[in-house]
Amino acid sequence: MTKIAIVLGSIRDGRVSPQVGEWVKEIGNKRENVEFEIVDLKEFEMPLFYKRFSEYDGTEKEYENLKRLSEITQNVDGFVFITPEYNHGLTSVMKNYFDLFYAEFNNKAAGIVSYGSSMGARAGEQVRNILAELQVADVRQQVSLSLFADFEGFVNFKPLDIQEGGLETMLDQVVAWTDALAHLRK
Ligand SMILES: Cc1cc2nc3c(=O)[nH]c(=O)nc-3n(C[C@H](O)[C@H](O)[C@H](O)COP(=O)(O)O)c2cc1C
Questions:
Q1: Is pLDDT at 186 greater than 90 in this prediction?
Q2: Is the beta carbon of 155 within 6 A of some atom in ligand 1?
């Protein structure tokens, strides 16, 4: 069974990323032989990066949280990154996640769902740059959601009908590349 993590890229009170993640999960899990699961970065209370997890020497509680996140990241075959835009970039919690781990990401595929008033386009492009360094193959199709068009009152997620087709295409690409890279992960 191919496993894909849907990573929620925000942790603030009132965040909308869980609504977006659930949408991706529901549509993704209609596929056979693929399991989409939500990974909520808020659950792990990651310390701010000062060294990679593989060299981590901080508190035991933080170590246990990071170990759990390391194992989850290692055990999936691919990712969908739910990427809000903050100050024309990706969120700090996403960057922290990318910096803390490395081997756990390598030779996997990823898709990006971005959002913001400019559809999160700048944040999505930043994530693509980072994924190249982590040896993650990011697929072409990107789902870009507008706070004005796809959310009621900027907080209730009601995607335009057109978004679903784009999501299906993106998920198909992620699954295909995830499977194509499997032999490199052995
Ligand atoms: C600190 C901060 C900075 C933001 N900067 C931008 C921005 O530069 N461009 C944009 O389109 N939206 C920006 N927004 C709006 C967010 O994209 C919007 O609030 C979105 O819902 C955030 O995702 P979240 O609800 O999952 O936290 C910003 C929001 C916050 C909290």
A1: no
A2: no
Bridge partners (DSSP) listed for residue 113: 82, 143
| C-beta neighbour count of 57 within 10 angstroms | 7
- Give the tokens for residue 54: 């593989």
- Tell which one of 12, 15, 85 to mutate to probe ligand 1, the residue whose CB is within 8 A of the most ligand atoms: 85
Look at residue 172 and tell me if it is in a domain.
yes
In a domain, 1, yes or no: no
d(Cα 84, Cα 20) in Å, to the nearest integer? 10
> Confidence band (pLDDT; 50, 70, 90) for 34?
very high
Terminal-to-terminal C-alpha distance of the chain: 15
Asked if residue 12 has its Cβ within 6 Å of ligand 1, the reply is yes
- Protein residue whose Cα sits closest to atom 18 of ligand 1: 116
Question: Is 97:7 a contact under the CB 8 Å cutoff?
Answer: yes
The pLDDT tens digits for 146-169 are 999 999 999 999 999 999 999 999
Question: Residue 6 domain-assigned?
Answer: no
118 lines ligand 1 (CB under 6 A): yes
pLDDT band at 59 (very low <50, low <70, confident <90, very high): very high
Enclosing domain of residue 112? 12-185
Q: What is the pLDDT of residues 1-23, one digit of tens each?
A: 999 999 999 999 999 999 999 99
Domain count, the chain: 1
- The predicted model scores a pTM of 0.98
Supply the CATH number for residue 26's domain: 3.40.50.360
Ligand 1 center to 56 CA (angstroms): 31
Query: Distance from the CA of 86 to the center of ligand 1, in angstroms?
Result: 4
